[in-house]
Amino acid sequence: MRVVITLLVLLGLGAVVAWRVGDALGLEVRPADVPVERPVAAPPRPLAPPPAIGSIGVPDEPRLRLAAGAVADALVERGRPRPVVGSAGDLVARTEPGLPDEAYRIDPGPVVVGSTPNGVAAGLYAVADAVRTGNDVVADGRVVAPRLGLRLTDLGAVGLPDDPAAFGDDYSLNSDVVGSAVLPGAPYVDRAAVEEIARQFRDLVHHALADGYNAVVVPGFLEYVTFDGLGVHPPGDPHVARAEAMAGAFGPVWRYAHEMGMKVYFSTDMLALSPPLRSYLEREVGGLRTEDERLWRVYRAGLSELFAKLSYVDGLMIRVGEGGAAYGFAGWDYSSEVAVTTPAAVRAMLRAFLATAAEHDREVIFRTWSVGIGAVGDLHTSREAYEQVLGGLRDDRLVVSTKYTLGDFYSHLPLNDTLLVGEHRRIVEFQSRREFEGLGALPDDLGELHRQALRAFLANPRVEGVWTWRQGGGPLLAGPRVLDLRTGFWQLYDLNSYVTGRLARDPDQDPARATADWVRRTFSHDPGVVHAICRALALSREAVTKGLYIGPYADHRVRALGLDPPPMMWIFEWDVPTGDSATLGTVYAVGRDRVDEAVAEGAAAVDAARRMRDLVAATDPAGWRDPVLRERFTATLDYEVDLLGVLAAYRTAALRHVRWLDTGEARDAAREAAAEYREGRAAHLRAYGDDLALPAYNLTAADLGLARAARDEPMAWAARGVLLALALALVLGWRRPWARALTRPWRRVGLSRSDRVLVRAVPAVVVLASRAVLTWFAAPAHLVPVLGAWLVFAGLLRGTRPAAAVGAVALLRSVLLLGVLAVRGPGYYWFAFWTEPVARAVYVTVAFAAFLGTFVAAYAVLRGQVGRVRAVGRVLVAAGTPPAVLGAVVAVVGLERALTVWNDQMALLPWGLSRILGITVHLGIPAALPVVALGVGGAAVLTGYALGSSAR
Predict the structure, then answer these.
(1) In 10 A of CB 607, how many CB atoms?
(2) Residue 324: its pLDDT value, please?
(3) Geometric angle at alpha carbon 504, from 503 and 508, rounded to 5°
(4) What would you measure as the largest C-alpha separation in the chain, in angstroms?
């Protein structure tokens, strides 16, 4: 009866563990309401002749002179002589009262009329755009006003490094634009570098104004303030002099946008920190206590100083959902930390900053983008969380900024319905250079999608603006060397900035026509060339959404492995196709009945890319304004055809292999696709391995995955062989003492010297063989600790009978493992673990019960030999030593590094996780875990020795 009760208890504990594991790994799937895109090419139309404007008359106001210059530039591009800009002319701009701020009309003459310089400038930019795009300048006196009044842009590529040597595998997310001008000591800034940044910024301002934007977001906050009078910085602290130098050098740079009629917002993560500020907060507030008003009084003082020092700044944009080392700038000790993690903390922060904004007549833009646990972690995607965090916080100076997708900037996502709720002023975030869709290296016309989004969100009358990221988002140096307005084929994503700017002014206009206008502005005025490019761009979304996504998976909202994985998932961040079992198993499981469709999508994407390439390649080179742009476009499309071909072969190989793991079918098809992938991979790396503008994808993880896949069947046969060998050994030696000791450890058996060796050797060999098979004979980082733990545990028990008891349980667990591996290898084991809840629950229950049974069996044997107390002590010493040793080793090596090495060899989680986000950070694994293991194991050892000593 005691044995039965013990077994039931062990199985009960195993069931609890299985339930907890299942709860963490449970796969939840529901369909997603994905917007249906039907992009088309605008029909060809004749080019309107440019108007005969020999002179332009505008008031002597800088922003109007700049806008008049845009009209003059457009006329020159159309072959007209450059008009003179003065106080009178063929085209006249004037002001008269009665129109809203940015509204204008164009009267016959033509005469551009507005009530403010902003309105007049908007009319002049409309004339310039019509001239460039081959449209008529319609002078019908109709009042034109923007539908959305706040239209922000990021800084594009201003200040970003353009050194070819800097591009490669740096996945850091730092977005500081002043880095090239920062000096380690006095005078703290390089004036020549500042001037170059200023030149780039002026170009950005001119381009953004012409595209219809009226505000710009500049990264920065803490590096410009000194907290004067608070005592944050000790006497002589260089942070003070550095901040003064930064404000003196860069203040005039950012002021230029204000002078040209744009609003200027600074942006920062919260908490923004420096070493002296952190020390001050620890000293005065007791640490980073973000619900404490005393902490926010410090930041209020800094914000007040910023508004006073840079009086043209219109407000501060705040993000609380990301931060940490990945965002740090090398050589600077300014940092950020995700510390505002509760609704109370968010509200305390906003109330403090809004009070300061009211004092200075400024605004606060709060971004809902967030990651983490609880309401703040769900703020971006949950209406309930939005209400919990921001409900009732009414202030007209607060603007809430939210990405248009219900998640990050991926396709195959629903529109973000949190933009339809709340009582706050709202703006919608868009991304032109899609970080997950080629990082600007692939054509990706988002006009139709962005129009759908804007028209849906305008159901909320509080939506009043957009924020378009021209270059921002994702790793800035681990992608193509393409910099907005500066380097490479940046025109590809300039399309989205242009079209989104037009849609923000008029969401009802046809995005296909806007795309055609942009093509005429950028590439050609030849109707045949324009139409061919438009037809190619109309295919771009099919190529991207089918080639970079696996539709049967991507069209679902999924929760897996305790996370909300993105719709792309099989390609990590932007260029790392993954080979891990968790991802590929989940992707397959979600679309298990649609594998053929998923495979066909890859081929369809390649076909779409080929059609795009053929359309552009067939255009007459003489019809292009710049032959270099034609060469870049065709080279880009050649790259896309090649890339999507490699990805199509890989997805086929991966999905067919998982189908074989699941059903035993498609083995040959998987092998054929793997061979095709290897051939395409080699060609892809040869063609693009050294190309910075069109870089080869990082296929390391895919290679690892397919290498493991190729071993699955041999490993299944190896597992069968080990089981057969063990069965034969036990049958042939059934009456031998060593076999009886291992199969009936509860009985006393007299053992000879050879029997004692076999009692230890047989379990050790089986454990080694089973774990070697589990790891494809390719993961010593897993095999060595596991085998070492068993050997140390058995060795410290001292004695043949305890060793036999432990060996018996080890054999039981190994037979259970080998039985699963014998089906279709380690791939099947992990596939079932990630995706089959019933099988996983049964396996984990039995396996964990057997694991605990190891200690019970050892104690039961030792109790009869040395007594209960000493038996407990000896088991504690044996059980505590392995985790203590392993914890010490990992603490020295580093948890992130140890997990990276282990995962690289086991291929269970995305290979890119540690390279880009960090396994510990992304999965929330405490950094102190090795120390905890060392402490718990050490305590067990010390307790065990104490019990052993006290019982003597």
Answers:
(1) 18
(2) 63
(3) 45
(4) 115
- CA–CA gap between residue 328 and residue 306 (Å, rounded): 21
| CA 490, chain centre distance (Å) | 22
Q: From residue 648, give the alpha-carbon distance in Å to each of 340, 537, 653, 910.
A: 42, 21, 9, 19
773-829, pLDDT tens digit by residue?
999 999 999 989 988 888 888 888 776 677 777 888 888 889 999 999 999 999 999
- Residue 2 burial (C-beta neighbours within 10 Å; 0-12, 13-18, 19+): exposed
Under 8 Å between Cβ of 389 and 375? yes
Question: CB count, 10 Å around CB of 245?
Answer: 20
Q: Which two tokens stand for residue 348?
A: 């305390």
CA triple 200-201-205, angle to 5 deg: 120
CB 120 within 8 A of CB 91: no
Q: Do residues 452 and 35 touch, judged by C-beta distance below 8 A? A: yes
CA dihedral of 376, 357, 287, 389, whole degrees rounded to 10: -20
CA distance linking residue 23 with residue 389, whole number of Å:
27
How many CB atoms sit inside 10 A of residue 924's CB? 10
524 in Cβ contact with 536 (< 8 Å): no
- The encoded tokens of residue 180 equal 């090239």
For residues 858 and 513, give the distance between their C-alpha atoms in angstroms, rounded to a whole number: 78
**Residue 283 in tokens:** 């000293």
Name 468's bridge partners. 153, 430
Q: CB neighbours of 766 closer than 8 A, spacing ≥ 6?
A: 722, 726, 810, 811, 814, 815, 818
Task: Give the model's pLDDT for residue 815.
Answer: 92
* pLDDT at residue 508, as a whole number: 94
pLDDT (tens digit, 9 = 90+) per residue, 99-133?
Answer: 999 999 999 999 999 999 999 999 999 999 999 99
CA atoms of 16 and 25, how far apart (whole Å)? 14
Query: Residue 587's pLDDT is what?
Result: 94
- What secondary structure, in 3-state letters, does 865-908 show? HHCHHHHHHHHHHHHHHHHHHHHHHHHHHCHHHHHHHHHHHHCC
Length of the chain: 952
Q: What is the DSSP track for 163-198?
A: -GGG-SS-------S-GGGB-SSTT-B-HHHHHHHH
Closest CA to 442 of 434, 450, 454: 434
Q: How far apart are CA 36 and CA 128, in angstroms?
A: 34
Query: Residue 353 CB: number of other CB atoms within 10 A?
Result: 25
Q: Give the separation between CA 303 and CA 315, rounded to whole angstroms.
A: 9
Collapsing DSSP to helix, strand or coil, 430 comes out as strand
CA dihedral sign of residues 719, 722, 726, 731: positive
CA end-to-end distance (rounded Å), the chain: 31
Cα angle: 182, vertex 183, 187; to 5 degrees: 110
Return the DSSP state at 97. S
Query: What is the layout of strands, in order, in the sheet containing 55-57?
Result: 84-86, 55-57, 91-95, 111-114, 104-107, 143-144
In the chain, % helix, strand, coil (3-state, to 5) comes to 60, 10, 35
C-alpha to C-alpha distances, 802 to 746, 806, 863, 879, nearest whole angstrom: 10, 6, 10, 13
C-alpha distances (whole Å) from 812 to each of 246, 721, 825 are: 68, 16, 19
How confident is the model over 39-53, as a mean pLDDT? 94
How far apart are alpha carbons 226 and 709 in whole angstroms?
58
**CB of 79 within 8 A of CB of 51?**
no
Query: Residue 190 and residue 25: Cα distance in Å, rounded?
Result: 52
Phi, psi at 819, each rounded to 5°? -60, -40
DSSP category for residue 593: G
429 close to 561: Cβ distance less than 8 angstroms: no
Q: Is 36 helix (H, G, I), strand (E, B) or coil?
A: coil
> Taking the alpha carbons of 288, 292, 294, 297 in that order, is the dihedral positive or negative?
positive
H helices of 798-867, where?
A: 800-835, 837-866
818 half-sphere exposure, CB direction, 13 A CA radius: 24
